[in-house]
Design a protein that fits this description.
The chain is an alpha/beta fold. Helix content is 50%, strand content 12%. The chain is built from 19 helices and 13 strands. The protein has helices at residues 3-18, 23-26, 51-73, 146-157, 177-191, 202-214, 218-226, 243-258, 279-285, 298-312, 318-327, 332-348, 355-364, 379-390, 394-398, 404-420, 425-431, 437-448, 451-459, and strands at residues 33-38, 43-48, 78-83, 85-87, 90-92, 96-97, 100-103, 106-107, 167-170, 197-201, 230-234, 262-267, 289-292. The chain has a five-stranded parallel beta sheet with strand order 10-11-12-9-13, sandwiched between helices. The chain has a three-stranded mixed beta sheet with strand order 1-2-3. α10 crosses α11 and α16 crosses α19. It is flat and about 80 Å long. Residues 85-123 and 369-375 have low confidence and may be disordered.
Length: 461
């Protein structure tokens, strides 16, 4: 393919992406240049300015980029990257295959854990391992995570108190544990910049421990971790049955706790269910406070989606957001995956994201289960059904009109939304044109206290 043809197609890819991304997000694509395209192997090579740049684009825009390239190049295309990294007197390159990015020193899945900084003196050069993008400010609070957030914030604001030491945070994958402990660490570093804070996944700790023994640096390994003032270990369930690693961690834990250092742990289950750990380790996990992070309720799922959409400058109708929040109940990652899938399919199929389009795409890809229409009880579905059944306009229900038929329809919506969704009464009031919590409660009671009206309402769905 000629250079001019390649550049033209790349411009078309950017035009497609521009319809789905904000101007701020598109800034990440400005330095990317198409280098070559192999028409036989369907292989596109792009140049990017740095490894950090590559990681950011892959993390945030991978799905959309592949969808745009697929549509413009008319084939499933493997995207490879050439990264201009100066290593001595030569340039390094990183390639991505259709199965994923190859990291700087081997496959991403097998890359080495962060190297140990074996100097125990308190140096300003310690790499905390924290993700600065995960903060309390963009952590969305709901009923399912209110306690865990409050405890984490209390620790960050006053790390010297020992009431919550250790903090053992547990819950299923994808409910925000990693985000929360990163937010704790980021806030603590901001308030107390001289403290030695370290975030490390349990898997990386295991790798470092193994390497320290292999290189006869076990004492340096222990000394390094005993110099940490706030230790955050993610996914400690990976320590189960790793007896030698647990022995080392046991001594590190004891040293830190006895010296008033903070220990933050996350896990996918409570201490009582950690089979393969000695009781002496489990008892230490229970010394401080154990907090569960539950799966997000519908209102929280909705707020998380809206936050992501607003921060990302995305264009997705509210009724689609409500549908996703209502039907995907497992975890935050699946919510975000649904958004990415819709954006990608809208590019490939050149289609607007509507409620029907969202149902088709998400059910087709088994992201959501196909449901009978009568069971699709999102707020918008309830609103539409009541308006249709009672012969009033949706705009009238949402408006300020007080005619008897409109007021009754509005109360039907309040009652059904409280019964068939996870929305709180304040949220229902907001969706109904900004009504108060008290007004919604009154409307619910009007229907609930009248058997005939209650039966009529239920039959509408």
């Amino acid at each position: 393919m000629s250079d001019n043809n390649l550049k033209e197609r790349w411009t078309q890819c950017l035009d497609l992406l521009r319809t789905k991304l904000s101007n701020q997000q598109m800034e990440w694509f400005k330095p990317i240049r198409p280098k070559s395209y192999d028409e036989e192997e369907h292989k596109l090579i792009l140049t990017v300015p740095s490894n950090y740049f590559l990681d950011y684009v892959e993390t945030n825009f991978r799905t959309l980029l592949h969808a745009a390239v697929y549509r413009i190049f008319h084939n499933p295309t493997a995207i490879f990257y050439q990264v201009n990294v100066i290593k001595g007197d030569r340039e390094g390159s990183v390639e991505e295959s259709s199965t994923g990015v190859e990291a700087r020193e081997g496959k991403r899945g097998n890359k080495l854990a962060p190297k140990l900084v074996l100097d125990t003196p308190k140096s300003k050069g310690l790499n905390s391992g924290l993700n600065p993008q995960q903060t309390f400010e963009n952590f969305i609070e709901g009923k399912s995570n209110k306690l865990s957030r409050s405890v984490a914030q209390a620790i960050a604001d006053n790390p010297s108190q020992q009431t919550f030491n250790p903090l053992f945070l547990w819950g299923p994958s994808g409910v925000g544990k990693t985000h929360l402990v990163n937010a704790l660490g980021v806030r603590l570093q901001k308030l107390y910049p001289t403290r030695r804070v370290l975030y490390i996944p349990a898997h990386d700790f295991l790798v470092q421990f193994t390497e320290s023994r292999r290189q006869n640096k076990f004492n340096e390994f222990i000394q390094f971790y005993q110099s940490i003032e706030v230790l955050i270990v993610d996914d400690v369930h990976e320590f189960t049955s790793q007896m030698k690693t647990l022995e080392a961690f046991f001594h590190i834990f004891n040293h830190l706790h006895q010296n008033g250092r903070k220990i933050i742990l996350t896990c996918d289950r409570p201490p009582s269910e950690l089979v393969g750990m000695e009781e002496r380790m489990l008892s230490r996990f229970r010394w401080g406070i154990t907090v569960e992070m539950e799966r997000p309720e519908e209102e929280l799922r909705y707020n998380i989606l809206m936050s992501k959409i607003l921060r990302g400058g995305l264009r997705i109708p509210e009724e689609v957001v409500q549908y996703i929040a209502h039907t995907i109940k497992s975890n935050v990652r699946e919510l975000e995956g649904a958004i990415h899938s819709l954006q990608a399919y809208s590019i490939v199929e050149n289609a607007e994201i509507t409620l029907e389009f969202a149902r088709h795409v998400l059910e087709k890809n088994a992201i959501t289960k196909a449901q009978p229409k009568s069971k699709r009880t999102t707020f918008d579905y309830i609103l539409d059904r009541v308006a249709e059944q009672m012969g009033v306009e949706v705009s009238s229900i949402l408006g300020r009109g007080r005619k008897a038929d409109v007021a009754l329809a509005r109360q039907m919506v309040m009652y059904l939304a409280s019964r068939h969704t996870d929305l709180s009464t304040p949220r229902i009031g907001t969706l109904l044109g900004g009504r108060s919590h008290t007004t919604v409660l009154h409307g619910i009671d009007v229907i609930a206290d009248d058997e005939e009206l209650k039966n009529k309402a239920e039959k509408m769905l």
